[in-house]
Specification:
The protein is α+β, with helices and mostly antiparallel strands. The chain contains nine helices and eight strands.
Length: 198
């Protein structure tokens, strides 16, 4: 799969995480783009089901992917992957073991996906992709760390207000009940918080 237009969203996303001054930069970028193919998911279709092996790592060009776990027949949102981000059920993907979570499209999605073989080839042989992956994972670890601390130290109101400041597009694009689950708040309490914040 080749991108003819280098102004493509994925290309621009890659540029945020890499050093563009290497000698064979153009060749390496082209190799990355060729390794990914398109996967379209309709709303409510699954990228991976809990208990199945995740076969792909993906860039989200459009749409929203909900990461969730099922507890007592209720889906609890653990993460929301918006457009212009990368995601996977990483432990399942890298180790080819059953996923402990489901990843579902909560809006129609256009994804650029790579399978494990091509992913490992890029990591081992493509310095630009290796740098990209390292920088993306480093950023994600910092975000997850902050999120866990916020769950323990901030009130529901404070968590909502922080989201309002740091991720306003989440509030515009994601249905309320998914956001409430993500923030660890009941939908009813979330509605009250929103009303009081307006």
């Amino acid at each position: 799969m080749k991108f003819e237009n280098k102004n493509h969203n994925f290309y621009n996303y890659l540029l945020q995480f890499i050093d563009c001054n290497t000698n064979d930069y153009d060749f390496q970028i082209d190799e990355i783009l060729k390794s990914f193919g398109v996967l379209n998911l309709k709303k409510n279709e699954y990228f991976v089901n809990e208990g199945e092996v995740c076969n792909c790592f993906c860039y989200v060009e459009s749409g929203i992917l909900q990461h969730s776990i099922n507890i007592l027949d209720e889906d609890k949102t653990t993460y929301l992957a918006l457009k212009n981000s990368v995601t996977s059920s990483l432990n399942s993907f890298l180790n080819q073991i059953p996923s402990r979570k489901s990843i579902k499209a909560i809006a129609d999605c256009k994804l650029w996906v790579v399978d494990l073989k091509n992913f490992k080839d890029l990591i081992q042989k493509n310095k630009t992709f290796n740098q990209f992956y390292y920088n993306v994972i480093e950023k994600q670890i910092c975000l997850i760390d902050d999120y866990r601390i916020d769950l323990l130290t901030l009130t529901p109101e404070e968590r909502y207000k922080k989201l309002l400041t740091t991720e306003p597009k989440l509030l515009q694009e994601v249905p309320l009940h998914y956001l409430a689950s993500f923030l660890g708040i009941s939908s009813r309490h979330m509605s009250r918080i929103r009303k009081n914040t307006l």
